[in-house]
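thread: overnight batch results

M.L. [08:02]
morning all. the overnight job finished for the chain we discussed friday. pasting input first so we're all looking at the same thing
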Amino acid sequence: MTALVAVPLGLSSIPFALAADGVAGVLIWPVTVALVLAMPLRHRRPGTAYLVVLAAGLTLVAVSETVVFLPVYLAMPMVLYSVAAQGPGWARRSGLFWVVAAPTLVLARLVTTPGTVVGPTPGAVLVLWSVYAAPLAIGWIWGDATRSRRRWYQQLAERADRLERERRALDRAAVAEERARIARELHDVVAHHVSVIVVQADGARYALSTEPELAREALDTISATGREALTELRGLLGVLRGDGGSGPAPQPGVAGIPALVADSAVPAALSVAGRERPVPGSLGLTAYRVVQEALTNALKHGGPGVTAEVRLAWRRSSLVIDVTDTGGGPPAAGGSGHGIIGMRERVAAAGGRLETGPRPERGFRVHAELPLRGIEHEESA
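M.L. [08:03]
and the structure it wrote out:
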């Protein structure tokens, strides 16, 4: 594209070159060729093209007053544009100086040379100076605006790239948080099912010789509990590994609490007050895990003959879970085990409140209140 401009400008300058004589007639040819070559050179080497144009212009002004209006002089504003747009800093600053200095030198040459068409009147000098300076100023200003626009686009691209990296970091943090939650799920699953298996295995061992039927029932419970544990573990580990395929089984919720209580190794009764209604999956899972962990604690620490009672109360703005047992005391270490900590974290994450501790009469109590945000319900409890 630049060649389509450079070649016609060079050809249109030939008549002026032929009309020149003396030293100007000799120098005008290499100077014209240099200006023509500077136009395509400005794209790759703007600093070099700028020096070529500067040297050519100063040479012509020095040797002749009649060739300062060659058409090929349009190479000067084009090169100034490239210098201001993408040239080195020294060339850009120097180019701004020559926007003013070059017309001044040309006018000084014309005014001080006898026989030129330009008189020393201020009006004529100002008009001619403006005509000569305008293309140079337009080229430099346009180039500087282009450079500023490119820098602005580059800053936008860098900002978009930074935001993209931050988004990916947040995604990784969310994945890590989700995997930490799944790890807690694994703890709850393993703790509950292994506790059931251990207690049932101990009971089967003691009853094997005296009450084979009870031992058989205990072994059936161990088998069923082990299969259930394996099913949940496969699903949760599949999520941790990022496996494709069918994916993990749906997480249990409030609807799974009756089956959990019925299948518990601890004899437990369930009572529900109020009108049940759908809840978010995360809140339902929290309710399920609270009941599961409370029954696991009763099994592990309640002692022989322990029983439990699970009460669910649906209130206007909360679901209240109350699990009590008749065991001989609280969980190990005064209730500071990982199960209690896990329950407390889950309930706090749901925006609820958890209370645990020994009962005045006997046994242990787990009391949780889970808020039901955005669910309108008339209290019927």
